[in-house]
Amino acid sequence: MKQQIKISTLGIALLATTPLHAFEFSGGEVFVSRLTDDFSGTTEQTDIIGGSGELRFGAFGLQADVSNRNFVAGDNIPSWGLHGFYTFSENLKAGIHYGQEDWNGFRYSNTGIELAYQRGAWDLEAYFYEDHGLDDDWDSTVGGLNAEFGLNEQFSLHGNLAVSGGDDDIIYYGIGGTWHHQSGAFVRLDAGRFDDRDRGEDANVFALRVGFEFGNGVTFSHRNLNENLPGYGN
């Protein structure tokens, strides 16, 4: 995994050092979300605001993400991430990712690989990354699959599965739907199940996301624990 971190960091650094004028802005998105869960029979909410932008340089791409999560306890958890990827065809993109999130002064890095594939009405995204403590000895992994099926130009259905290991033992699975407007606005609903097998806790998780996509949007989802494992941290 240390070798993977070195390769991922080097790849993103090479993309980042390419002159900015050589890149073409291809798209982005901004969003706000409210996530609700029922851990221990108590309803808790998390508010999220975030955005992404993507640049292209021929077959290469660079995507940047930023977000901030405000938990019911008042904690603010900021995160950022960079994706460097290569377009093998119109349907297939593969990349590497590096990001960080700050949990009350403790920083954690997310380093991994990801794949995006499109065929017909299907959009598939697979990922695997290491969540590593920069200020403590935390070390876990997260792997997942996101699948979306477009019913028509306005509506799509999706399913999500994510599993963590190492210092965590969590599984999340969920389904949902998204309404897309031709202007780029969208509304997304999610319903899922969060199962922390290590602590013996589970919860139903519901989320509402409203946002705006411009240009061609972005290729990959955000990579942070609360985004890939909704309900994490509550």
Walkthrough of the structure:
Strands 1-2-3-4-5-6-7-8-9-10-11-12 form a twelve-stranded antiparallel β-barrel. Residues 1-5 have low confidence and may be disordered. The chain starts with a helix and ends in a 6-residue tail after the last helix. Helix content is 8%, strand content 65%. It contains two helices and twelve strands. It is mostly beta strands and 234 residues long. The protein has helices at residues 2-16, 225-228, and strands at residues 24-37, 44-57, 60-71, 76-87, 92-103, 106-119, 122-133, 139-150, 155-166, 170-180, 185-196, 201-215. The protein has a single domain (2-228), classed as monomeric porin ompg (Porin), CATH 2.40.160.40.
Which features would summarize this protein structure in a list?
234 residues, mainly beta, Porin, 12 strands, 8% helix, 65% strand, globular, disordered N terminus, Outer membrane protein beta-barrel domain-containing protein, Porin_dom_sf
Topology of helices and strands:
Blueprint: H1 2-16, E1 24-37, E2 44-57, E3 60-71, E4 76-87, E5 92-103, E6 106-119, E7 122-133, E8 139-150, E9 155-166, E10 170-180, E11 185-196, E12 201-215, H2 225-228
Antiparallel strand pairs: 1-2, 1-12, 2-3, 3-4, 4-5, 5-6, 6-7, 7-8, 8-9, 9-10, 10-11, 11-12
